């Protein structure tokens, strides 16, 4: 957390114990029974409750539109991601979705941020997705982002080490810290998760720009027919290599979704100008652009 940007605050919430060891935190502006539509929010690597700057503003906006925002805690939240998998995340999201379907009617949309987008896509293609729509915000490739902060030799060496552990039945073993990039230095990461995140066609490799059309058809093309989809890609995302053509990449995803019958909102989807990964320090206009797209999308599902 950037303590320079932290301001103490409080907000009334509802705590949902949706699984024996997991909770979800609901953030209506006022605690009442009038909000029946639910936006389930899943963060990325290292995220948890209120770790993403724009969430507070998003809460007020969606509440005004008749929705409540629920931040979902998974076993992988905070530093748990290093020993978890998106398969486990998707299973837990499925339990959470069924929980909210049981306790209330209304519409339900899943929103992922960063690696939360991988979790959302994994859920959509591997589980019976009983949701009205999905929002992918900052759906970047962890594998490609590694090329920004680490040398190719270092990444290659780390993958060789991880693969050797996996092949010898030691995939749950934590890899040495010198293989991990600086932002992951304090998080224990097992060999299997490191491989999933950084190897070509690894379990987490859904959003890389070099995946071919057949691979995209097996992922985006498997989203359930008539599911509403919104893509929000940040123009200045610091985890996307400069050589990635963001507009072209989005078009490829749109096409793959259409092949399976999912409905991409092409009016609201697109590249958010001047936005970075988490919209940290974003101008009011940039934040309003992103949140406005979310609200208009929710009004259509």
From TrEMBL:
The superkingdom of the source organism is Eukaryota
Q: Name one Pfam family in it.
A: DUF1749
Q: Which Gene3D superfamilies match?
A: alpha/beta hydrolase
| Name assigned to this protein | DUF1749-domain-containing protein
- Lineage of the native species? Eukaryota, Fungi, Dikarya, Ascomycota, Pezizomycotina
